[in-house]
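Posting here for the record, re: S-adenosylmethionine.
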Amino acid sequence: MISAPGNGGQPGNRTIFIHDNLPVLEGMNSGMADLIYLDPPFNKNRIFGSPLGEPENGRFEDIWNWSTVKDEHLTHLEIRHPKIAAAIRGAARMGGEPYAAYLTFMGIRLAQMWRVLKESGSIYLHCDHTAGHYLKVMMDAVFGRKNFRNEIVWFYPDTPGRPKRDFPRKHDTIFRYAKKGGWLFNADNVRVPIAPESRERYKYSRTLGGREYLGGKSAVAGKVPEDVWRFPAVKKNSKESCGYPTQKPLALMERIIKASSREGDLVLDPFCGCATTCVAAERLKRKWIGIDLHKRVADLIGERLRNENIGLHKKVCVRDKPPKLTEAVDPRFAGSLFGWGLAREDLGDSGLPAKQKEELKVRLYSEQRGKCGNNHCPYGEVGYDFMELDHIKPRAKGGEDSPGNIQLLCGPCNRRKGDRNWDEFLKEEARREKIAPLIF
Ligand SMILES: C[S@@+](CC[C@H](N)C(=O)[O-])C[C@H]1O[C@@H](n2cnc3c(N)ncnc32)[C@H](O)[C@@H]1O
Ligand SMILES: [Zn+2]
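Prediction output follows.
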């Protein structure tokens, strides 16, 4: 097993996290990824690869019920991302508990992906008919309807399975969104040859645009592919197969990466499976970070990178010693990757010297009797390690570094507060308590 645990700061190029992606995303700086591709579990009855936990008794559970997600997460979305919460409540009315649970799982993570994505960045969400219609609404809520760019159909007709009373389902859908206007799109890097039978049409049809015009001198070879892409699915016996059931073709990933990133850019795949995105990014000289919670993929990825035969495995950092899963999803732990050495660098810190900070923390911890400084905090007594120093009046708004302006909050409260004023934060906290539970 490859392993070179990193310490401190932010994850660098060629890092694989074997962990639930939520706390990893929460620990990443804002605006660091140029491109995010995600191929999450699809809310099928049988989920491949044990998405939220290890298989029980050798079989995978249908995991999407309310007990597998956190009320806490929905409450957070209600307050900080009301549109996402509205999409979830709508889905709960339509599709009931499994959809509400699935979309809460996705919503809380997509909100983090939005934050981690650079202003000029793009995100590609890969899904299929089982939840795609709800996920598009969710993406509108997170990224904004005006930032929707494409609905790409990946068409893979040559796979087994021919139902007798339906048309065979042979495509997946990939929603492409930009974070804002001014997104990157490298049209010339993804051009494809024009089929001989269409050449005449292209030759005379100037309405297609000068750059795609093939007949005259100004011709650029090939056309930008339309939004239906045909690539063969990865067959078990194919060269690129590494035996992972939901493995996606490298060709598909290469087109996405070429279109929406430049050499040296950072590509992030928070549900990376057997690291197809990472391999494609490496081949195209992009930086990459992959996250997957399934322990088995650590070995598969190691093997795959070794087979790439570029000595890559020596450079890859696999962080594969997560806290137990139950701990990882405990809200007290959210965002604080103790023992992982991952620390946000974009949140600001008190300007006090380290020793003074530690003394202040010890004093406040005892004064606050081990409780978070927020009266509405749901966690009661919180361990010392999960407490963080917070500026009551944020530094961004002129708050000072003096001890009188510093209190102790638990990690989740500190993150919820962000750089808002204390009064504003408390008002929101009071609202939290009034939010109606989801009723199915
Ligand atoms: C559809 S597969 C991705 C396949 C990948 N695109 C490839 O080509 O190999 C979805 C992956 O998400 C992972 N996963 C599910 N829940 C996760 C979570 N909370 N955090 C990180 N990974 C998760 C699963 O273990 C699975 O490998
Ligand atoms: Zn708290």
